[in-house]
TrEMBL record:
InterPro entries: Ald_Fedxn_OxRdtase_dom2, Ald_Fedxn_OxRdtase_dom3, Ald_Fedxn_OxRdtase_N, Ald_Fedxn_OxRdtase_N_sf, OxRdtase_Ald_Fedxn_C, Tungsten_al_ferr_oxy-like_C, W-dependent_AOR. GO terms for molecular function: 4 iron, 4 sulfur cluster binding; electron transfer activity; metal ion binding; oxidoreductase activity, acting on the aldehyde or oxo group of donors, iron-sulfur protein as acceptor. Its cofactor is [4Fe-4S] cluster; tungstopterin. Belongs to the AOR/FOR family. This is Aldehyde:ferredoxin oxidoreductase. Keywords: 4Fe-4S, Iron, Iron-sulfur, Metal-binding, Oxidoreductase. It comes from miscellaneous Crenarchaeota group-1 archaeon SG8-32-3. The keyword Iron applies. It holds the Pfam family AFOR_N. Residues 4-206 form the Aldehyde ferredoxin oxidoreductase N-terminal domain. SUPFAM superfamilies: Aldehyde ferredoxin oxidoreductase, C-terminal domains, Aldehyde ferredoxin oxidoreductase, N-terminal domain.
Amino acid sequence: MFGWTGNFLQVDLTRNKAVAEPYDSHLALSLIGGRGFAAKILWDKLTPGIDPLSPENKLVFAAGPLTGLGVPNSGKLVIAAKSPLTGGYGDGNLGTSAGIEMRKAGYDAVIIKGKAEKPVVLHIKNKVAEFVDAKDFWGLNTFDTENHLKAIYGRSAGVVSIGPAGENLVKFAIISSQEGRAGGRAGMGAVMGSKNLKAVVFEGFDDVPVAYPEDLKELNAAGYREIMTKPSYAFWKQQGTMSTVEWCQENSALPTFNFSEGVFEKADKIGGFAMEKIKVGNRGCPNCNMMCGNVVKNSNRNESEIDYENVAMLGSNVGLGNLRQVAALNRLADELGLDTISLGNVIGFAIETSQKKSIPEELQWGKYKETRDLINDIAYRRGFGKLLGEGVKATAANIGHESADWAMQIKGLEVSAYDCHAAPAMALAYATSSVGAHHKEAWVISWEVKFGRKSYSEEKINKVIEMQRIRGGIFESLAVCRFPNTSLGFELDWYTKYLQAATGKEMPFNALIYVADKTLNLIRAFWIREYGNSWRREMEIPPMKWFKKPLTTGPLKGAMLDLAKFDGMLKKYYAKRGWDERGIPRRSTLQKLSLPDVAKQLENYVTMSD
Ligand code: PTT
Ligand code: SF4
């Protein structure tokens, strides 16, 4: 095989064993890699119904056929497992040299099961895996862990690690790399912590076999050049995702006061231009010439790498309008290994619940020190932070008082940073995302703003599906960053050329769409297998706040979603997907996608339609 190494590595932490598992070209061609491989591995190897924080869970690191080959923006790695936050499929996409080193070590994916008796670091150096005592690392934050490990193994080693949040099994703990890259919103860091696995160090020295190495080299150089010619390239390097603050403010979509409003009176203090004033550099993933991580000086006089989501969720959503302070909270979350999106949600929820006097804790909007202390309490599971560390859905269930209405989550995952009072298509994208309310698969809101916000039309459903296929299917399975395409307009046909040069196989765009549908249906089947007949459409209805409490300020004052219309839209979306009215794939759909065995197995867990 060219482009793929043809090997997975199976690691059992209980037995201190690591065994290579070859796989065939059929699997490579039918699911490509990254998310496709992760979904298939979890479907095949994970026992349904297991506790996500038990040794039975499988943590998968999966790269794609372009990883490690110098392709533009290909320094990404998919991390997946059954999510402790949602009980369904969870994954994240992390920018790290760890994926590149993993491939050079000879593996397209590493699958980790079991639980180490004592904390360990897994060190994979080419074909050899060793289990290193982590007593000197356990308790360290993610920055110190990685730096210490690089001092031992060298700066070129690829390291992923967890912080105290992952060790303490906070349900939205992430896995971190390179001081500012974070992945696995749905609690992948907690899964790693439950296995007593502090970090994985990858070192590889072999070349991945490539079908047409000279062609690939030329294409890579041409791709980097082409990216630099894109009209928005210069501004992207200036602000990265941060210009979204101003855009959301203009369009009443900036999450404010726990998604109660879409505009924030101090938005200009936390936006892209405010960021430029405190910016000291750019950072990012390997193999990227459009580095989007904005490095700024924070209020603790050290550096933070900030993105839009982090700033909106730890800024406007908790009422904080001081960017240096927001950046300091961002750095704290990175060090502790907490997902900033879920974190901003649980804090916003806690403040709103306190203001409504539904809890004894007294919390206020926009208080830096109070928020910082709460973040530490969440990571170390102290006081009220212990409950908040379970995620907003579980916290609301514990508190009661109708607080589920303002617990901003879908399928258990806290919503990303776009207010949807006036964005039905974006709400649909959240509702049907493969991991819970994440924007990664269909950032449809910018298209929706141009198209018209009020309608619940078929065009909107089609657009969500199109985006999910490209972003959630193709880019996640290639395990390549989507930003060159989605933010700068780097054309999709580059990727079919890269694939051909790397693998020698012609994979036209239509074939990639088929793989995308297959992957997304496999993930859907995973969720349904876990939930069985308790799965229902209501699980994909967004939080009631967006339907019951209109915006009270800004140009779209009075706007809110319509429940009956949204439900109708969701049903139509299911029909277009070939799913029944509950959102369960029909037998015929799975058969069309060459997943007859999945259909057969699913029948043991849920009543299916033809
Ligand atoms: C992603 C989610 C995002 S999406 C952001 S900002 W974004 C938050 N970043 C966090 C962070 O930082 N620190 C922290 N402690 N928690 C954080 N949680 C949030 O995590 C990320 C970039 C970004 S920045 C985005 S949109 C794009 N995402 C891609 C994707 O999903 N797939 C893909 N093929 N390409 C992508 N390119 C872009 O990558 P999750 P990263 Mg992340 C500090 O993983 O679980 O999906 O959560 O990986 O290396 O940091 O790159 O405005
Ligand atoms: Fe990473 Fe940003 Fe470059 Fe994408 S554009 S590869 S997220 S640094």
